[in-house]
């Protein structure tokens, strides 16, 4: 299987993807951690329309603004707005040799399928440590409780 828990080699081109809505420390840690294992890192930002289809949610921050935030991270070499979750389709476009994802997805049916689908292309799926107790979904609930109305 092409999956490993901790990256042990340097990859030429890495790829990671997410919504990155309400950018938080977990996003930053994942992206910076991924960058340690590759010469170049491409970060895919999920298009607003894609998020609506698979998460059934509207983003708080627009795709252009989310991409602008990602583009300005020093660990990111390229940021693209993507309209698919299909990593094989994305591989054919960008030719990365590793995909980075949080280890909270390890064993998930979609990611197990992704490992199998990418294996013929020699692409490794690397599970990096997930930052516990933080997510944009949690922030959606907590922000109204943290912000006083004036």
Please give a structural write-up:
This protein has 150 residues and is of the alpha/beta class. The chain is built from six helices and six strands. The chain has helices spanning 25-35, 48-55, 63-71, 87-94, 109-118, 136-146; strands spanning 3-4, 11-18, 38-46, 78-82, 98-102, 124-128. It has a six-stranded parallel beta sheet, with helices on both faces. Strand 2, helix 1 and strand 3 (38-46) form a beta-alpha-beta unit. The longest helix has 11 residues, at 25-35. The radius of gyration is 15 Å and the shape is globular. It starts with a strand and ends with a helix.
Strands, total number: 6
How many angstroms does the end-to-end distance come to? 55 Å
Strand numbers in spatial order across the main sheet: 1-6-5-2-3-4
DSSP strand content? 15-25%
Total number of helices: 6
User: Can you tell me the overall shape?
Assistant: globular
Q: What is the rounded Rg? A: 15 Å
| Helix proportion | 25-40%
The secondary-structure element order is EEHEHHEHEHEH
Largest sheet: 6 strands, parallel
List the helices and strands and how they pair.
Layout: E1 3-4, E2 11-18, H1 25-35, E3 38-46, H2 48-55, H3 63-71, E4 78-82, H4 87-94, E5 98-102, H5 109-118, E6 124-128, H6 136-146
Parallel strand pairs: 1-6, 2-3, 2-5, 3-4, 5-6
Structure characteristics:
150 residues; alpha/beta; six-stranded parallel beta sheet; 6 strands; 23% strand
């Amino acid at each position: 299987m092409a999956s490993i828990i901790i990256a042990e080699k340097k990859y030429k081109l890495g790829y990671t993807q997410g919504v990155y809505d309400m950018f938080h420390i977990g996003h930053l840690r994942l992206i910076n951690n991924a960058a340690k294992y590759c010469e170049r890192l491409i970060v895919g930002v999920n298009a607003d329309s894609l998020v609506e289809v698979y998460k059934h949610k509207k983003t708080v921050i627009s795709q252009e603004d989310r991409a602008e935030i990602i583009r300005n991270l020093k660990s990111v070499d390229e940021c693209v707005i993507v309209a698919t979750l299909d990593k094989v389709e994305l591989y054919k476009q960008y030719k990365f040799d590793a995909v980075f994802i949080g280890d909270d997805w390890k064993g998930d049916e979609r990611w197990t399928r992704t490992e199998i689908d990418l294996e013929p292309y020699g692409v490794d799926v690397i599970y990096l440590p997930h930052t516990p107790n933080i997510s944009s979904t949690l922030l959606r609930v907590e922000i109204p409780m943290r912000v006083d109305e004036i």
